[in-house]
Write a structure and sequence with these properties.
This protein is of the alpha/beta class. 27% of the residues lie in helices and 26% in strands. It contains four helices and seven strands, in the order βββαβαβαββα. It has a five-stranded mixed β-sheet with strand order 3-5-4-6-7, sandwiched between helices. Strands 1-2 form a two-stranded antiparallel sheet. α2 links the parallel β4 and β5. α2 packs across α4. The model has no long low-confidence stretch (mean pLDDT 97). The structure holds zinc ion. The site of zinc ion has 8 residues, from loops.
Length: 144
């Protein structure tokens, strides 16, 4: 692993450079001083999607969901738990396919929930269907 990592702040979208050795020490954003990780998935929109997917040096796991989708709602607490376990090695994020239809179409999301794992802008893996927290963590660790 390299000596430092670029991490995109979920509050102000500033790209921070964090020493890899200090990743586990609750790093804060140099611009807005908020924590870069708070054990909760971040919200992706058209405004921050490209930056979060392309500029983070850690993998980004995206939950493509919608408010009307029952299985998506069932999986939400599991995804929260997975965030607490996978951060700060992986960034977890949610994309509402109803409000962000262009992004859902761009990635040809046909069923929800769908999890997609990205690293430096490349999609590494994709998994449709709801999963429990342990399965999410195992699935991600199997790909990074
Ligand atoms: Zn910030």
């Amino acid at each position: 692993m390299s000596e430092s990592l670029h991490l995109v702040c979920s509050h102000c979208e500033t790209v921070n450079k964090i020493p890899t050795a200090r990743l586990g020490e609750e790093p804060k954003c140099g611009q807005c001083h908020q924590r870069l990780f708070d054990a909760h998935p971040i919200k992706l929109t058209a405004a921050n999607f490209q930056r979060q997917i392309n500029r983070n040096d850690i993998p980004v796991l995206v939950d493509f969901w919608a408010p009307w989708c029952g299985p998506c709602k069932m999986m939400a607490p599991a995804f929260e738990q997975a965030a607490a376990q996978l951060e700060p090695q992986v960034r977890l994020a949610k994309l509402n396919t109803e409000t962000e239809q262009n992004i859902a179409a761009q990635f040809s999301i046909r069923s929800i929930p769908t999890l997609a794992l990205f690293q430096n802008g490349q999609e590494l893996a994709r998994q449709p269907g709801a999963m429990g927290a342990a399965d999410i963590v195992r699935w991600v660790r199997g790909h990074v």
